[in-house]
Amino acid sequence: MGGGTTATFGAGTYNIGTVSCSGTNGYSICNTGTSLTFNGPNTFVLSGGVYNGGGAIMALGSGSSSNSYNIGKASDGYSINVGTSKIMTLGDATGSGDFFQTPATISSGGGSCLALPATGEHDVNGSIDAAGGVVMGASIYTVNGYVAFGNGGGGDVSNCPTSGTTTGLTALGVTLVVSGASTVTCGSTTSAFCLGAGFSTVKLTAPTSSSTLGSSTAGLAVVGPQSSSNTAAASFVNGASNTQVSGAFYFPNGPVFMSGAATLHDTVDSGACLELIGTQVTSTAGTAAGSTCAGLGSGSTGTTIGLVK
Fold it and tell me: Residue ranges of the domains in the chain?
């Protein structure tokens, strides 16, 4: 779709091959027009990736919560590629048997807005690398790579995903499980998780035991690499000035770095509790961290906050 085109497709199953898109082979859906909408419920079986560029607005599975996404890989290594200042939304996949899986990286450019669906499990055999606003539907996100927001610039986006809302990252009822099979340099640190430039509106809450989606990871916001040989870090760097995390941030084999006036706290919800777990926690250059969690550490009571080695 291109040349100012506006198009709408109806409910159904879409089995789509590939085409060259903006000079790159291997995309199944290529939108450089004005807008492209698939009204759900939809099942997507795509040989290649999905690209949204031009002046584009794209909606997949619109108006439905019963969608499924089997998205392929383009030759540039992306399953989902959202261009600078573009909008892409994916309807939820919470019906019986619904799923979301990609064999490659999900990427978005600065000023863009990407809304990923709620579903039981997101299987991403690649990384998540975003420079624009991202809304992550409630789910367990298993990412065989790294997760980075703002590593190469970008940041918060206004009117994302709705008018009057500013979003850097909104991920409520989410667990991010990150393998670190591939890493990113965040600041100057080799990292499996990176939060950086311009992302000053970040809200991440772990699922609860009563969550319909993701209850098996209740209380876990982020789970880092589990191999003792993978010491990739979790890094919060310049510009990550208002990061709100409720749940355990668990990096058992890697350090947690905070630098460049980054702030980290847990005032997302009434049951908020931030626990940072790493081989080392380093805070430099005007950073700050706080937790409303009570009773951490041996002998702690009441409103005492504990640092445990």
Answer: 1-103, 134-291
